[in-house]
Every structure is written in structure tokens, then in C-alpha cells.
Here is the input.
Amino acid sequence: MEGRFIVLEGSDGSGKSTIAERIGRYFREMGHDIEFTREPGGTQISEKIRELILDRNNTEMDYRTEALLYAASRAQLVSEKIIPWLKAGKVVISERYVYSSLVYQGLGRGLGIDEVKKINDFATAGIKPDLVILLDVDPEKALKRKLSIDGGDRLENEDISFHKSVYEGYKKLSSYFPEIVTINGDRPIDEVFEEIKVLLTR
Ligand code: TYD
Here is the structure.
């Protein structure tokens, strides 16, 4: 496909949104058309699924249901938005993608990476990003920041051991997927972005 697909991954509160904006600005200044999206969400249907998944009252949600809902939200986003954008030659910047499901549901919830990858291969019709930037920040620090801002959603209110296993999960994942580049996010934003810029010019 013509365009470029860039994904930001990392723990809750790792600074994905700020970096996404910087990347967008960089490509815009180079004269590219940019589209931003986030997961779960990004289309009308996907946003409805997002509400369902993150609702703090849905305490009885089965882990498989959770994994399937994330995949369903993603399927809609890929077919309705991402594929047409890439076909139109745009730069697509997404906060989170399949890798989040592999880590949070596959490892964090213990459903297994292979199982979760299977439903996601189906959901995404095999659409893969050109680059995945993993923002590596201390999970405890990141979570504290997030909870102090908005009180957190259903996933963010899991205990710290869940978030630590997510953090370890990301580290493990990056050794399996060559498209993942790990960047130390525990630094001033300008410094982090300087390192990312080098990846964007490749
Ligand atoms: P969000 O508020 O978008 O978090 P953040 O700002 O940190 O990206 O909420 C998304 C939550 O859903 C977050 O806790 C991670 C989780 N998640 C999964 O468990 N699996 C997935 O496939 C995705 C995309 C997100």
C-alpha cells in the first residue's frame, strides 16, 4: 500500500499521545497528509465497543470476551479507516494496535500470545504497520501519572502487578517482532523525539 503506518505502543501513561502529535507535526511539515487514530476506538462503532470494554461497572467481563471486543473494534477501524487512508497515500499514526492485545490480553490476562494473535490476524486482514515505537517508561511512574489525571478506566484500575506484567510483556514482545523499536521514554520530550526522528527518515 502507498501510505505509511506508524504505531505507538507502551504502558498506560507512557506519553503516546504527545509523541503521536510530534510525529504528526513532523510529517505535516514535510508536506504529507496525516491521520491520527487510537485504540480501542477511532470509528463510531469502535468507540461504542470502547465504552463497553472500559466501563468500570463491567466487572464480570470474561477475558475472552474482552480480547474479542478489542479485536472487533480493531477490525472496524482497519476496514473503515486505516485501509482507505493507506490506499490514499496518507501517513497513519495510531496509538496502540495488535501489540496491545498480545501484551494485555495474551500475557497480562494469560490468554496466550498465539491465541490472541490468531483472532487479530483475522481482525486486521493481515495489515501490518511499517514501524512500531515502544515507549519504555517505568510502569509505576506512568500509572501514577495517569490515575492522578482522570482516576483511570477499568483496565487502569487493575493492581500494579498487572501493569508490571504488561511492562514485562512489552519487553518480551519486542524480541519477537522486528518492526518494534524500543525508545527510552523516561526523558525530556525533545530528547525522546530526536531519537524517533531518525527512525522516521528511514
Ligand atoms: P486508553 O484510555 O486508550 O489508554 P492509553 O491512554 O494508555 O492508551 O485505554 C486503553 C486501555 O485498553 C489501556 O489500559 C490498554 C487497554 N488495551 C488492551 O488491553 N488491549 C488492546 O488491544 C488495546 C488496544 C488496549
Notes: The helical segments are 16-29, 44-54, 63-87, 98-108, 113-124, 139-150, 160-176, 189-200.
